[in-house]
Amino acid sequence: MILRSRLTVCNHSAIFWVALLAALAASGLFVLLAASPLPTQLTNDIGAVPGRVALVSPAVAPAPPSRPGAGKNSLAPSPTQASGLPIQGDVTLGGAAGDVLVGLSLQPGVPGRNTVLVYVLPLAGEAAAAAVSTTLSVDGNAIDLQVCGPTCRSAEADLQGGERIEVGVGDATRALAIFTVPMLPAPDGSSLFDQMQQRMHRLQTYRVIEVLGPANPLVRTVYSFQAPDRMQSEQDSGAEMVWVGLHRYLRDGPGAPWQVEDTGTALTVPAFTWDGPDRQVLSPHIVGTAPLDGVETQVLAFFEQVGRTPIWFRAWIDAEGLVHRVEMRAQGHFMDHRYYDFDAPFVIEPPTS
């Protein structure tokens, strides 16, 4: 799936959605790529280019990695054991320190002594992660971190829930990823995830405001979706896209002429960033509650891995199962979504001029 190079530069967010929806329609898994610079690890994995989404066969997606040191009789951890990624049952949260992806996993995730596992992945990839200086503090108290692999750091800490954990990354210019430990043990979120999926996939129309980093300035795009196959987007730069059935309409800004393309592929709407056939949702936990858009929501945290690409999600879900906000954290792709206008009475039509 190749889009115009001008849109790759000026409308990366829309390209992400377009490629995601078409990929889901083709029943493949998707891997997200940041606009620039492109993460080395992803380039090596799928040979993609900035601003594209590539499909990864479910057959080649590895099982979730094991806990570092889980095999007590082994002399050394395997590469997957030393990744720093969560395993089923961990309480796991994703964040960012500057442009570095940071994952935080607690095991066993109950009050008392816990292993705190920190995953760090800079834009330059896993090899560069080994040299990333990393610190850890709990409620302002520094805790020594042990290096357990290029992307892996670990420590032991007594936790009860509610603590503030700071992960510092870098030397001269230190950036922080800040986490709040949820109530321990955090309630299982599997049923809430299923409720979310069922309700969101019944939507006929909805809108999304997307803020995408770590680009500076951040990229802001507004999307409208209409089932079964329509989408409209407008970026702060003025770039616009309308996709109706098999036709895509593009222009660089208001007043610019529309260009029409026959895509040969229709979108599938609704579809969401956490979707995909055979996707394994790992360790969903309810990590808090918060009022949002005038309603009470539960905050659901979960993890997915697509090929070698780790992705952390956090979703704010109301009692009906509607998602009001989503945070997604992947290498070089820090994306926040606000969902609204659920089943609102609007129609997306092809442009007339």
**What's the count of strands?**
22
Query: What Rg do the Cα atoms give?
Result: 20 Å
CATH architecture of the largest domain: Clam
Strand order of the largest sheet: 17-16-15-14-13-12-22-21-20-19-18
CATH topology grouping of the largest domain: outer membrane lipoprotein receptor (LolB), chain A
The helix tally amounts to 5
What would you say this structure looks like, in words?
There is one protein chain. The chain has 353 residues and is mainly beta. It has 2 domains: 5-55 and 190-340, outer membrane lipoprotein receptor (LolB), chain A, CATH 2.50.20; 91-180, Macroglobulin (MG2) domain (Immunoglobulin-like). 12% of the residues lie in helices and 42% in strands. The chain has 5 helices and 22 strands. An 11-stranded antiparallel β-sheet has the order 17-16-15-14-13-12-22-21-20-19-18, covered by helices on one side. A 5-stranded antiparallel β-sheet has the order 3-4-5-9-8. A 4-stranded antiparallel β-sheet has the order 7-6-10-11, with no helix packed on it. The protein is globular, with a radius of gyration of 20 Å. Residues 1-81 have low confidence and may be disordered.
Keyword list:
353 residues; 11-stranded antiparallel β-sheet; 2 domains; globular; outer membrane lipoprotein receptor (LolB), chain A; 5-stranded antiparallel β-sheet; mainly beta; single chain; 12% helix; Immunoglobulin-like; 22 strands; disordered N terminus
Write the layout of secondary structure elements.
Layout: H1 5-10, H2 12-25, E1 29-31, H3 40-46, E2 54-56, E3 91-97, E4 100-107, E5 112-121, H4 126-129, E6 134-138, E7 141-143, E8 146-149, E9 152-159, E10 164-169, E11 175-180, H5 190-200, E12 205-213, E13 219-226, E14 230-235, E15 240-244, E16 247-251, E17 259-262, E18 282-292, E19 295-306, E20 309-317, E21 323-330, E22 333-340
Antiparallel strand pairs: 1-2, 3-4, 4-5, 5-9, 6-7, 6-10, 8-9, 10-11, 12-13, 12-22, 13-14, 14-15, 15-16, 16-17, 18-19, 19-20, 20-21, 21-22
